[in-house]
Amino acid sequence: MKLYNNIINDVLLSIEEKDLKNIPYDSTSNWKKNDDYELLFKKDTKVELGASPYKSVQMNFVTSNDEYFDNDEILLIGKDIPKIDKKSNYARIALLRVDDMPDNDEAMYKEIKNLEFVKYNMFLDGVMMRASALDKSEQIRISNKASDNNFNFSTLGSEFINRFKENPLVKNVKMIFITDNDVDMKYLIEKSEKSDEITRALNTVLHGMNFDCQSCNLKPICDEVEGMRELHFSKKK
């Protein structure tokens, strides 16, 4: 699984000179879960991540390259949640190492989408998460109650990692959170959109929607992404 590796490299290169703090991962994290989405009003909110006028972005990258991973870990660029004054930019980057993606291409696409859908099922008590598939944004409100109980990125990252690893295909997870307002969010948003283009191109290839490469508007993606062209032509046989 190398489809997203070029984008992973670009993203990691863009933040390599930033102050990346390694914060604790807790495999036994047991923050209270709710059964459904929790609505938080502003009067009940202590911190907003990615809310206007600030920017937000989220991205998941599935890869078989173990060079990106030492183990399961959480990295932070910027302030942790308890130290944020009301609002800030917010980026969440999840690198997911998989060893045994299904041989069936359509099953592989389904697994990639299943891992993306994790973000829509994170019902943490005192935390309202709003993720948009349209613009790749992800905004989070942390309640006064959750703040009083020291909700932080160690907790959020641990809950994400544990949820991702419920899928037996996922061997390691690297979570990167960004709240530093000096980070180039526009660049990260562009990379997130490119990642989404790769996933759409994969869907196009798998369903044989366009075998005329010259007329396909996704041709630049196939030309650029390692493994995509080989996959495309294998579906024509």
How many DSSP-defined strands? 9
Strand content: 15-25%
**Strand order across the largest sheet:** 1-4-9-6-3
Mass-distribution shape: globular
Description:
By secondary structure, the protein is of the alpha/beta class. The protein is built from seven helices and nine strands; from the N terminus they run H-E-E-E-E-E-E-H-E-E-H-H-E-H-H-H. The protein has one domain: Bifunctional carbon monoxide dehydrogenase/acetyl-coa synthase(codh/acs), Chain M, domain 3. Helix 2 runs antiparallel to helix 5. The chain is globular and about 50 Å long. The model has no long low-confidence stretch (mean pLDDT 86).
Entry summary:
The chain is α/β, with parallel strands linked by helices and 237 residues long. 32% of the residues lie in helices and 22% in strands. The chain has seven helices and nine strands; from the N terminus they run αββββββαββααβααα.
Question: What structural keywords apply?
Answer:
Bifunctional carbon monoxide dehydrogenase/acetyl-coa synthase(codh/acs), Chain M, domain 3, 7 helices, 237 residues, five-stranded mixed sheet, alpha/beta, four-stranded mixed sheet, 32% helix
